[in-house]
Amino acid sequence: MKRPCSFPIRTSSLRLFLPHCLSATDKAGLPYFNRYSSRAFSTASKSRAPTASTSRVLYEPIESVERMEYYQKGGYHAVEIGNYFHDRYRIVHKLGHGTYSTIWLARDEISNRYVVVKICTADSDPLETDVLSQLSEPLKSSDIDKTMIPMILDRFNIQGPNGNHACLVTIPARISLSEAKKGSWIGLFQINIAHALAVQLATVIQYIHSEDFIHRDLYRGNILLQLQSNFDKLSTKQLYELYGEPELKLVN
């Protein structure tokens, strides 16, 4: 059996702008896709233990790929490159996974742009999606750009062999502040960039608090920079030429 490995991206975190014509690192002008998904608003966690029937499944683990035994009742929904969901989202690459979701880059064939499709496990908690929906639609503050909070573009459900899976569609983002800082040879931001990012972050946090929510996992790795607008102009072929095609690994 073959499973696609991760294509680097982030989804549900705060998004900030870099000042026009300024770059924190040489990588800042390019989309950067991280292997791991993150939770913008943490909820009570619970461990997922394999059942007696799945605990006997033996295979060689693959780095940065979800555990195969979680494809069970209540678990992940199996996805293949090229699948269509909701009659519009064509899966073109795998972005990552979390305990309660797998995350995919898709081409929206109606709006002709790239989106992120987060497919939750059948037993996942919908709290994060509900919180993001309340914060992003509509924005009650005119002080922040609407893209600084991850916008919920669409929501739908998939009925599969492992149960009913809530799906969340949002916009992709690029490198996190942690990764941008590591990419700098001196490990520091330019002072004008640091000032601009700090102002934007304070504005967004003030807005979140005004809506009676608290971000429980705020650190540089959960603060992301936005993609350039020309990313959507890439064809799938150009995307693969720039960032590589989906990599399949044989599960032994």
Account of the 3D structure:
- The protein has helices spanning 127-136, 177-183, 191-210, 236-243, and strands at 2-4, 14-16, 84-85, 89-98, 101-108, 113-120, 154-160, 163-170, 223-225, 248-250.
- It contains 4 helices and 10 strands.
- Mean pLDDT is 75; it is low at 6-12, 15-47 and 49-54.
- The chain is of the alpha+beta class and 252 residues long.
- This is non-specific serine/threonine protein kinase.
- It catalyses: L-seryl-[protein] + ATP = O-phospho-L-seryl-[protein] + ADP + H(+); L-threonyl-[protein] + ATP = O-phospho-L-threonyl-[protein] + ADP + H(+).
- One of its GO terms (molecular function) is protein serine/threonine kinase activity.
- ATP binds at residue 118.
Mean of pLDDT:
75
Given helix and strand content, the structural type is alpha+beta
Number of domains: 2
**Mind summarizing the main beta sheet?**
6 strands, antiparallel
Net shape: globular
CATH architecture tag of the largest domain: 2-Layer Sandwich
**Which strand order do you get reading across the main beta sheet?**
3-4-5-6-8-7
CATH superfamily of the largest domain: Phosphorylase Kinase, domain 1
User: Do you know the CATH topology of the largest domain?
Assistant: Phosphorylase Kinase, domain 1
Sheet-strand content, in percent, reads 15-25%
